[in-house]
């Protein structure tokens, strides 16, 4: 075996060793993250604890609140405080217990600069006295009327419940949710 053959075999052996070491020490190959580092992984389960998500540059904020009893404005959800946003969806639900009823009245969604104030009407439904049912009001426009769904930073979405006899009773419970898109 000549010197030339030994050099070729030595270079091939060195390349094989370096390639093997490099392959096993490269680590996981992820997607470049915002900070320039590789992002590897996924959500661990079906619940996300963040109040917002950014997907392809679209920032969506999610809000939820249980209803407060004994008040005419049982729910106040705050829009994102860092930027103007558009209300994509809002809904309010009142559940009644079997021995109590939601009084006939009105369920309305407003936008307002302060919590608890009813300034600009977004959606409304008339309610009938009911027991053991859910009442839902959403911002889905069905009449073709244009409604301003743009919220200033920190503005509130307010649920107003009014009836001839009282505010939301203690036997009632429920929740309201909203989805805001930052523009």
* Percent helix: 10-25%
Q: Uncertain runs with pLDDT below 50, 5 residues or more?
A: none
> Under CATH, the topology is which?
Jelly Rolls
The CATH architecture classification is Sandwich
Please give the largest β-sheet. 6 strands, antiparallel
Kindly give the count of domains: 1
Q: Measured on Cα atoms, how large is the radius of gyration? A: 29 Å
Question: Could you give the distance between the termini?
Answer: 73 Å
| Total beta-strand segments | 12
Mean pLDDT: 75
In percent, how much strand structure appears in the residues?
35-45%
CATH top level assignment: Mainly Beta
Keywords:
12 strands; 183 residues; single chain; 1 helix; 12% helix; Jelly Rolls; rod-shaped
Please give a structural write-up:
The chain is mainly beta and 183 residues long. It has one domain: Jelly Rolls, CATH 2.60.120. Helix content is 12%, strand content 41%. It contains one helix and twelve strands, in the order H-E-E-E-E-E-E-E-E-E-E-E-E. The strands form three sheets. Strands 3, 4, 6, 9, 10 and 12 form a six-stranded antiparallel beta sheet that branches. A hairpin with a 7-residue loop joins strand 7 and strand 8. It starts with a helix and ends with a strand. The model has no long low-confidence stretch (mean pLDDT 75).
Give a topology summary.
Layout: H1 3-24, E1 31-32, E2 38-39, E3 52-55, E4 58-66, E5 75-78, E6 85-96, E7 105-112, E8 120-127, E9 134-138, E10 150-151, E11 156-163, E12 172-182
Antiparallel strand pairs: 1-2, 3-4, 4-12, 5-11, 6-9, 6-10, 6-12, 7-8, 7-11
């Amino acid at each position: 075996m000549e010197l030339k053959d030994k050099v070729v075999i030595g270079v091939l052996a060195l390349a094989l060793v370096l390639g093997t070491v490099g392959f096993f020490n490269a680590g996981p190959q992820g997607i470049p993250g915002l900070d320039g580092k590789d992002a590897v992984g996924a959500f661990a389960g079906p619940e996300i604890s963040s109040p917002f998500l950014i997907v392809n540059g679209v920032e969506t904020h999610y809000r939820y609140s249980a209803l407060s009893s004994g008040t005419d404005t049982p729910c106040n959800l705050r829009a994102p405080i860092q930027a103007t946003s558009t209300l994509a969806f809002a809904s309010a639900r009142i559940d009644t217990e079997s021995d109590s009823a939601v009084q006939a009245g009105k369920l309305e969604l407003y936008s307002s600069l302060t919590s608890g104030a009813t300034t600009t009407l977004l959606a409304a439904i008339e309610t009938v006295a009911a027991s053991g049912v859910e009442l839902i009001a959403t911002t889905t426009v069905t009449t073709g009327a244009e409604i301003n769904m743009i919220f200033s930073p920190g503005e509130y979405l307010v649920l107003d419940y009014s009836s001839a006899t009282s505010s939301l009773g203690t036997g009632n419970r429920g929740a309201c949710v909203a989805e805001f898109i930052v523009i």
